[in-house]
Amino acid sequence: MLPVRCFSCGKVVSNVWEEYKQRVAEGEDAAAVLDDLGVVRYCCRRMILSHVELVDTLAPYQ
Ligand SMILES: [Zn+2]
């Protein structure tokens, strides 16, 4: 689960996660996708770049 907002500036970032994930999986450059989605501040970019999706991994143990 990606946090809804950037911890540093409060910009909503959760709405770009699905498109980012899909486009990177299709081979697009991550930096270009983030630029295109309007995630330009590095505080917001690290929210997405450093995110590891654990929800499916942890779900069986809940
Ligand atoms: Zn930010």
Write the layout of secondary structure elements.
Blueprint (H helix, E strand, L loop, with lengths): L16 H9 L4 H8 L4 H8 L5 H4 L4
The structure holds zinc ion (ZN).
Zinc ion binds next to α3.
How would you explain this protein's 3D organization?
With 62 residues, this protein is mostly helical. The chain has one domain: Orthogonal Bundle (Arc Repressor Mutant, subunit A), CATH 1.10.10.60. The chain has four helices and no strands. 13% of the residues are buried. The model has no long low-confidence stretch (mean pLDDT 93). The structure holds zinc ion.
Distance between the termini: 14 Å
Low-pLDDT regions: none
Biggest β-sheet strands, sense, barrel: none
What overall form do the CA principal axes indicate? flat
SS-based class:
mainly alpha
Instruction: Provide the succession of SSEs.
Output: HHHH
Number of strands: 0
The ligands found in this model are: zinc ion
- The total domain count is 1
Mean pLDDT: 93
CATH fold assignment: Arc Repressor Mutant, subunit A
Number of helices: 4
Q: Which percent bin holds the helix content?
A: 40-55%
What is the architecture at the second tier of CATH? Answer: Orthogonal Bundle
CATH superfamily: Homeodomain-like
In short:
By secondary structure, this protein is mostly helical. It is built from four helices and no strands.
